[in-house]
Structures are given as structure tokens and as C-alpha cells.
Amino acid sequence: MPEGPEIKRLATRLDKVLTNQPLEELRFSYRDLDRFNDQLRVQNITKIDSKGKALLIFFESGLTLYSHNQLYGKWLIVRKGKTPKTNRTQRLVISTLRHSAFLYSASSIELLQPEELENHPYLIKLGPDALAEETSWEQVYQQLISSRFEGRSLGSLLLDQHFVAGIGNYLRSEILHVSRLSPFDRPKDLPANKKRTLSKDILRVTGQAFLTAGVTNDLSRVSILKEQGLSRSKYRFAIFARAGLPCYECGKKIVRSETNGRRFYSCPACQPSVRMV
Ligand SMILES: [Zn+2]
Q1: In a shared domain, residues 88 and 157
Q2: Please, which residues have CB less than 5 A from ligand 1, an ion?
Q3: Catalytic pick among 53, 186, 195, 236
Q4: Is 262 a catalytic residue?
Q5: Per-residue pLDDT tens digits for 182-227
Q6: What is the extent of the structural domain holding 194?
């Protein structure tokens, strides 16, 4: 499933081709939303953004199109006049003079009034968004020390969109490795300076993934690995999907395990659990 950085990059691309462009076509083929086709087609899209893993398209009338793709949903952007080759079910197409954006198989599409957007059951429960400009590391720190989250394991917290929105499974392994933390430790087991570092790393690593289309390895290391001729799949991550390979920091073998039902990668030497020593 795409994580926050991938959704945010998609939102940025859609924003670039659709926002403030006259719409040539806007057509839903999803439940009863097709009755809005004519009304929305004559409006401007004023902004496209993501929140957590939801995509939001804002129209000038104040209506917002909410979509959440879960596992199967996908947006594809093509030159106007072309149709993507896919077996997925089309839910929506929006075309300008130059581009068409197709949405396929999304699990959830809703058209929301401003008050419905404010009280949306998915959006209202999200924690601070790791990719929103206004989110500060201090806000993440406040989440870590809150009674709601301080007693839960980091492996579980970093997948919980109520804790911080936008993190997903590869980011969980990468962030905890950079912070030198075990997924089994809880915020309340850690000294304040470790929690501060983790709060900053959560925003920094997720932000880097957005800027680099998912490269979370140390960027100076990435330059060296690229010079050696390694492909993206080999230099992309510091730890994720590198089971059995040596840790870049200490040379010990990276271990794959499973925590909270998802695969997790760590270095036993660099990331000892404070609860288990
Ligand atoms: Zn190591």
C-alpha cells in the first residue's frame, strides 16, 4: 500500500495538472455520484492535497472530493485523448485541455460539504501529518509522551495513523533504524533525549521519502552507492528489505522479523531493546 510520501507526491502531480485549469470533462462512474458530473465540471479545482493516506480535491464551491485508495485504488495521469491500459474498474475521470486523470477501484470516494470535511470520521482521528508543513517535531513529541500512546510499542505506534499520519511499513523500519530504537520499546521506556531524536527523525525521514520518491537511505551514502553502479532497489533503503546483508553502521547482519503483522527489518547490534537488557 502506498505510504504518506507516495500519496503526497501523487497529490502534487494532480495539483499541477488539474488545479485552476478549465475542465473539459468530469465524469463519475461510482454509485450515485454521477449526478454531480455537470455541477462539478463547470467549477475550478482550487487545490489538491493529501492528508494521511487520503487524497482531497477542493472545488471552488466549497465541495471536497475525498478518496482513499486502500490496496487497489489507483490514479493514473495521461495526455488528453489517451486511455491508460488497465483492467481496473474506472471510478472517475477528470480532463483538462492537456491531461486526463483517471481514478480506478478506490475503496472509498465521497463528496463532502465543508462541515462534513471537518467532521469526517477518517480525517478527524488522524494524528499530526508527518508531511504537513505546519507539523513540528514538538507535536510528535507530545504524542509520544501522551497517556494514550506512551505505553504502546514503537512497532505498533509507527503504523497507527492516529499517532502520526502518513507513516507506513517501510518508513517504520527506516525511522527506527535511524533512531537506533527497537520496535518492542515503548515511549515510556525511553529517556527524553531519545524521544526528541525520534520525533525529529519521524518528520525528517518521511520528508526525505517525499522529496526523493521513496529513497530513505542516507543521501551521502546513496551518492557513493550510485557511483559504484548500484541500482535504485539496492541503494534505496538503509535497512528495509535488506535481510542477511551487513548493516551500514556496524557490519552485523540485518534481521527480518514480523511485528504487528507486518515485516520489519532491524540491526540487533544498533537497535537493542531497552526493555530486554
Ligand atoms: Zn548495525
Answers
A1: no
A2: 247, 249-250, 252, 267, 269-270
A3: 53
A4: yes
A5: 999 999 999 999 999 999 999 999 999 999 999 999 999 999 999 9
A6: 137-266
